[in-house]
Specification:
mainly beta; Rubrerythrin, domain 2; 31% strand; globular; DUF7129; DUF7129 domain-containing protein
Length: 42
């Protein structure tokens, strides 16, 4: 089990998705909009 688990985020404004290991990321790199966490598919 790893503490640095990657999380997928989706932008609320432009639907851009990116996977990051830093849970503090909350700004979209493409448009500057708000990012939200996307639950991983299990």
């Amino acid at each position: 089990m790893s503490l640095a688990e990657s999380l997928e985020y989706e932008c609320l404004s432009c639907d851009h998705r990116e996977t990051v290991a830093d849970a503090l990321v909350s700004t979209c790199r493409r448009c500057g909009g708000e990012m939200r966490n996307v639950d991983p598919v299990r």
